[in-house]
Amino acid sequence: xxxxxxxxxxxxxxxxxxxxxxxxxxxxxxxxxxxxxxxxxxxxxxxxxxxxxxxxxxxxxxxxxxxxxxxxxxxxxxxxxxxxxxxxxxxxxxxxxxxxxxxxxxxxxxxxxxxxxxxxxxxxxxxxxxxxxxxxxxxxxxxxxxxxxxxxxxxxxxxxxxxxxxxxxxxxxxxxxxxxxxxxxxxxxxxxxxxxxxxxxxxxxxxxxxxxxxxxxxxxxxxxxxxxxxxxxxxxxxxxxxxxxxxxxxxxxxxxxxxxxxxxxxxxxxxxxxxxxxxxxxxxxxxxxxxxxxxxxxxxxxxxxxxxxxxxxxxxxxxxxxxxxxxxxxxxxxxxxxxxxxxxxxxxxxxxxxxxxxxxxxxxxxxxxxxxxxxxxxxxxxxxxxxxxxxxxxxxxxxxxxx
Length: 403
Hints:
The chain is α+β, with helices and mostly antiparallel strands. It folds into 3 domains: about 5-70, no CATH class; about 80-165, DNA polymerase, domain 1; about 195-390, hpI Integrase, Chain A, CATH 1.10.443. The chain contains 14 helices and 9 strands. A 4-stranded antiparallel beta sheet has the order 1-2-3-4, covered by helices on one side. Strand 3 and strand 4 form a beta hairpin. Helix 3 crosses helix 5 and helix 7 (about 210-220) packs parallel to helix 11. The longest helix has about 30 residues, at about 270-300. The chain is elongated. The chain starts with 5 loop residues before the first strand and ends with a helix. InterPro entries: DNA_brk_join_enz, Integrase-like_cat_sf, Integrase_catalytic, Integrase_recombinase_N, Tyrosine_recombinase_XerCD. Belongs to the 'phage' integrase family. This is Tyrosine-type recombinase/integrase. It comes from Xiamenia xianingshaonis.
């Protein structure tokens, strides 16, 4: 190892960790002083290891000196990333919805792959950028290259993790602040053309709960978690009340955004679908009740009302033949298995909601009305994310000026 590059009690010290000229060295050790120890009278030293050019090492040293000057040097420098991340996820599980927490777990798993031995205080913006780059290149838990969009989601989770670490006194500066994030590279959401919407509706059976989820998306703009959270008490005459989400953890929760709690008018078509679904469910319950009664009678057991199934306001709309609410992935699995034979191989369940809102937009429904139907806090969300111009729209637009 070569000697120090520069040393000064107030400016700190940078040591090269590679036996190379300063211009080619990419590993450095930083040393700074944080006042005197009252017991020994000696200066307290703080060390950090960084990667990058000498200029980047200088920047990291300035950040460290700034922490010291502001009295914000973290006290728990020994924390490993993996240890703090596990504790963070435990706390996160108590306050976040299951779907959000589950995503956090997946994101942290990707980061742990490259930060297994890293101490929280040693993680710099350059280290974070290296993690992003490796995940994009295929060094992921699955061994596949991750999309820029997914790594951007990982970046948001890490930013929150390090922000909480600052509050906990583990670190003083969030390394994600100065790390360049990958760009969103997911193709724009698609919307079905009008003819395809009619074609799909004709192929779906509302008596089957997973297919009813798709129909509620394409006919009423109800998303998957909302459809699985519906109970028969939410359907009131000509309206359907969106009050709950049902997550993959089996939790029925009130909608997390105020605007998502909304009342939607029912079209005649949706009413017919729901009527068919309820009639079919009642038939399943009747079949179950008949078998239950025969079994109890054969054993000489008294039949109680509690032993029989019946549709109440609390009965799920999307449920099995025993009245158990289905998890959202049930409808996703059905769609994934059957979308190819239906002729919609490149489409997702959520594209049905997009298609519904885009169809309303094509029919000149005011943006404020669309916002209310979609349950968005801002009209810009409706415009920027959910509305799409299809090829037919574009042809009509350019035909206006045909020189």
